[in-house]
Amino acid sequence: MATSVRARRAGSPPPSAPPSSPGGPRGRRAVPGGLRSTLYRWDIKATPYAFVAPFFLTFAAFGLFPLLYTGWLSLNRVELGGDPTWKGLENYTDLATSEFFWNALLNTFTIGVISTVPQLLMALGLAHLLNYKLRGRGFFRVAILAPYATSIAAATLVFAQLFNTDYGMINGLLDRTGIGPVDWESSKWPAQIAISVIVTWRWTGYNALIYLAAMQAVPQDLYEAASLDGASRWRQFVSVTIPSIRPTILFTVIVSTIGATQLFGEPMLYGGSVGISGGSGNQFQTLSLLMYEKGWVTGALGQASAIAWVMLLLLLLVGGVQALVSRNNRKKLGG
After folding, report:
1. 91: CB partners within 8 A, 6+ apart
2. Mean predicted confidence (pLDDT) in 305-324
3. pTM of the model as a whole
4. Tell me, what's the pLDDT at 325?
């Protein structure tokens, strides 16, 4: 024992450990050959694909196949219960000359603008208020999300009663102020404003929470530096908060635009018996309502499929604009 200690002090290397047996802990590094080695390699390569396969199979069955089949139907004349007849691009050329299509496209655009812009501005303001330390801010955060949890049918029916031309509360208040009753159902702009109010009421809180999460990720050092420079809260909001959450704002604009393009439930339920046609004069018929009317009321599945593909192209166009704006922002930040 003493000799071993003196040998180590003299600089001699310590005795090497005995080689471990193949079945010991170190022997596990070597993968045995044969069938077990083949199964091991297959397990390493195939297991990740097996985990993601259910998603791709579900997407192929309920996403990709309907998309491709709708594209094929848009090139045919198809009636309910009938055989398809090849028409090429005739359905698309008919849409280009259809006043109902252009009316629905314009209604979709106007309702989207007058619902998205106030919605996002109000959500930004609410998020800014909730970002400060307020009493009961946890309650307010849950409360502003309550409209989003409400079903579309319940919310639309309630607002339809509020905007009723004969006995609605909105017209009652307007009558007391001397403005007089407004025809919220048969007139174009009042009907579109009423539908936009429903959309704004339902989605403002949802977007506010998204903005609030982005605001809480902004470093507090930026606000402290702005405060030392004498910036007011409004100046901090404009110069610090808005630039910091610009990607989130762009995201909500794109998502809200997509939702406005697919608007269906609110105008259909608001119009009641004439909801599918967008009112008695198609004054608030959107592209989704027109597609439903063409497919399941008149039975022209080919034209309905063409409208669906036009909506898809519009959404792709919106996505392309988002990609360009994001790329320009990254270049500016990088520069």
Report:
1. 74, 75, 77, 302, 303, 305, 306
2. 90
3. 0.82
4. 81
